[in-house]
UniProtKB/TrEMBL annotation:
TM annotation in the entry: none
Domain called HTH cro/C1-type: residue spans: 30-83
Protein name, entry field: Helix-turn-helix transcriptional regulator
Biological classification of the source: Bacteria, Bacillati, Actinomycetota, Actinomycetes, Kitasatosporales
InterPro entries per the UniProt record, alphabetical: Cro/C1-type_HTH, Lambda_DNA-bd_dom_sf, MLTR_LBD
Organism from which the protein derives: Streptomyces olivaceus
């Protein structure tokens, strides 16, 4: 496929003009004259230089890679249909749709952008973090940094002791059962060639605890309404966890809140002041 430079440029300009700062969690400011977002704002959202993005809108520069197009599609909060259209304009075949996709839908992104002062994250069905709010990073660390099987919290739970240190010891047994149960259900749903089945095979080789729980064939083990975190700076936190599901991508938005007036509420406010300095 060949790149359609004029079509690509027109589509990018139109999508940028339609997005408002508040749609992506940015302040509007008092002297904004640009219709929609500025080029530099879109470039920052897409994790690329302003010059690179501007050249695309001006029908110049090299053909963008698939990785670049995926980043632009996410930064512009495109739907799956719009993302696929963008790929074709750039001269690429769109990614295969399905539950392994990592393109976060615009609806979940809009909600996440409005939760800057709340711990929240968007995860796949395997517990792979795709996006976090700043306070989410402050709570658990940057869990988007992991690669390979370690992207899954269920896999890390049985292989990285630091993962367990974030949760109260009294919850460890339930969480071990829950992660094993969840992996079994996804592996059964997606089949023996799925990433979930591959993770299970790896864990059977690496963790005796996982092997014992896997042999129990438990399914449907759910977490409690309240999660107990142990933060290295602010201490114990009892947080309610609400979730919102995007059925098209099997992504979940997880939002953590504390009961008003509680000690955990005060500690969460303290964490918002400390920020991400204490958790790597």
């Amino acid at each position: 496929m060949e790149i359609d430079r004029s079509g690509l440029a027109a589509f990018l300009r139109r999508r940028r003009e339609l997005l408002q700062p508040e749609d992506v969690g940015l302040p509007r400011g008092q002297r904004r004259r640009t219709r929609g977002l500025r080029r530099e704002e879109v470039a920052a959202l897409c994790h690329m230089s302003t010059d690179y993005y501007a050249r695309l809108e001006r029908e110049r520069g090299p053909q963008p890679s698939e990785q670049m197009i995926a980043s632009i599609a996410q930064g512009l909060h495109l739907s799956l249909d719009e993302r696929d259209h963008l790929f074709r304009l750039a001269g690429h075949n769109p990614p295969v749709r399905g539950t392994v996709g990592e393109h976060v839908g615009p609806g979940l992104l809009r909600i996440l952008d409005r939760l800057a002062d709340t711990p929240a994250e968007i995860v796949t069905e395997l517990g792979e973090t795709l996006r976090q709010t700043p306070l989410g990073v402050a709570l658990t660390g940057d869990t988007t940094r992991f690669t390979g099987p370690e992207r899954s919290i269920g896999y890390r739970w049985f292989t990285l002791p630091a993962t367990r240190a974030l949760y109260a010891p009294e919850d460890h047994d339930l969480l071990s059962r829950m992660f094993t149960s969840g992996l079994r259900q996804v592996a059964t749903l997606r089949g023996p060639d799925s990433r979930a089945a591959h993770y299970a095979e790896l864990l059977l080789e690496r963790s005796d605890e996982f092997g014992r729980l896997w042999d129990a064939h438990e399914v449907g083990v759910r977490p409690g309404r309240v999660k107990h975190f142990v933060h290295p700076e602010v201490g114990h936190l009892e947080l309610n966890c609400q979730s919102l599901l995007d059925p098209d991508q099997s992504h979940q938005l997880l939002v953590y809140t504390a009961d008003p007036g509680s000690e955990s509420h005060d500690r969460l406010r303290l964490l918002s002041v400390i920020g991400t300095q204490s958790v790597g």
